[in-house]
Amino acid sequence: MTTTVTRRDLFKFGGLAALGVAGASTLAGCGQPKTVAEAAAEKGLADTGAAAGPAFLAPQEPITDFAETHEYDIVVVGAGESGLSAVHTALEAGARVACVQNINAAQTTGNMAASIDLTQTDEAAVQACVSFINWKSDYRSNRDLVNIWAHNSQEALAWWAEEAAKGGVESKPHDAVLYYNGYDIHLHANTYFHVEGNHNAAATVIAENLAAAGAEFFYNMPCVQLQSASGAVTGVICEDADGAHHLFTAAKGVILACGDYSSNTEMLEYYAPDTKGFSLFTDFRDGSALCAGMWAGAIMTPHTHTKMIHGEPAAVRLEMPFLFVDQEGNRFMDETCCRMGYMNNFARPYLAKAGFEDSTAAKFFSLVPANWEDYYADWKAESPYDISQYNGDNKVNPEKWISADTVEGLAEAMNAYAAENDWKLTNIDPKALADTVARYNELCAAGRDDDFGKASKYLVPIEGGPYYAIPRGSNKLPAILGGLVVNADHQCLNGEFEPIAGLYAVGNASGQFFGGVDYPMDIEGLSIGRAITSGYYTGKLVASL
């Protein structure tokens, strides 16, 4: 049978469809997943003409039998940062709003949200920040979307902090200045590091406040399909705990604020295969509402999606390029790339060695001299985007590091730490570590790195004692930052890059705010700040229609 893969199909599948199922399977690192055609055949549905692609994109039989119908102006899918923000501005603008959530409560991730302080940052500096984010995203950002964050984030985050404070959850500010292209960009963040439950404590009280103000929340009511009529999305179809379907009509629009798909291994294998082997952060971000959007005609951001890999607590997050060694005590890289968000790219050989079944294989150690602080100010001034010893307002704590008076003793202490923390691959021979340090010190003395080519200014010997080893390496996947393609008004676009009437996406359900392989951590809290801002902006926009 001859099949045709259309341009719409290519965009819907994120660009891989044309490779055929063999190519998709190879990139996914899995066996032979079902294709769209096979999945459709199993359901007795017609082949849409897209022979390649995973089963989660298979056409669905329209659901038409409903236990109950609920009528609203706006239906928000998801009760996280972006969803709650959308509910707020839609409600404030006078709309009748429903929020459907696939679990039993409002839920967010993270404890810091970034904004631009427009009272101190002029327009040229704002645009420099937009350019900075585009640079850090491999020039794949949609500048319009970044501009929405840049010009609305201060207002949106001020609302979030004030609303949470009404329920007794106080934010602590974190202010910083980003220098780029000769401009000073003043950043302000809400932080909740000090609060038990962190950012989710704020979300809980905000959801309660919004419900008291008239928004209706439907928990344990996952979106399984969207209702469409004449090419426009007109409602959300949800499934309750008994398997019955409910229709939530949306006279003005549906806002997908469902987050990412980082709990769905099939979608990860297809859209972000380089996440294989890392630990999943949640089990409820299954991507089902994103699939519902694609079944309604929306397209997904092209591969590979930006991944956020975290895992290092503040006490050990010393991002300075001293000597890095793997779990056998061998140097393995040019340490200039030392930011937590990028280190996962050096972990794959070790994850593979563990059969992709042990995420602690991504861990390593940073060996640091006793006088490490002497270098911080100069290195930070020369490389402001690479050097850090902070996580929000929490400075690193050497008392939490591993230490010993000799290199050999340090090796023993490193093995003991690994055993206590269940790092299964760690096996450092004291002599081998001593040889690694001796070789590194020779390179430092020569001022030239014959092994990895690190800049001479970072060649600082590890000598004199006491010796420190810092356990590092991120192995947890909190989020994927690649959602449905939207325009400047956050309307979802179809395969012809035309807006789909009635359908919007915000937060991590939308792209392309980010675009690089890794989440840029140079503006801490940017992902959450963007989520709050996009929902805040879009709820107001849709309500005004």
Keywords:
single chain; 545 residues; alpha/beta; 8-stranded mixed sheet; 4-stranded antiparallel sheet; 14 helices; 30% helix; 21% strand; disordered N terminus
Q: How much helicity do the residues have? A: 25-40%
Largest sheet: 8 strands, mixed
* Total beta strand runs: 22
The pLDDT mean sits at 90
Specify the structural class.
alpha/beta
* Principal-axis shape: elongated
What's the multimeric state? single chain
Q: Roughly how many Å is the radius of gyration?
A: 25 Å
Q: Stretches where pLDDT falls below 50 for ≥5 residues? A: 1-33, 43-51
Count of DSSP helices? Answer: 14
- State the separation between the terminal residues, measured CA to CA: 46 Å
Strand content: 15-25%
Question: Would you kindly provide a written description of the structure presented here, covering whatever features stand out?
Answer:
The protein is an alpha/beta fold and 545 residues long. Helix content is 30%, strand content 21%. It has 14 helices and 22 strands. Strands 1, 2, 6, 7, 8, 9, 20 and 21 form an eight-stranded mixed beta sheet that branches. It has a four-stranded antiparallel beta sheet with strand order 12-13-17-16, with helices on one face. Strands 3-5-4 form a three-stranded antiparallel beta sheet. A hairpin with a 2-residue loop joins β4 and β5. α4 packs parallel to α7 and α5 crosses α6. The radius of gyration is 25 Å and the shape is elongated. The chain starts with 6 loop residues before the first helix and ends with a helix.
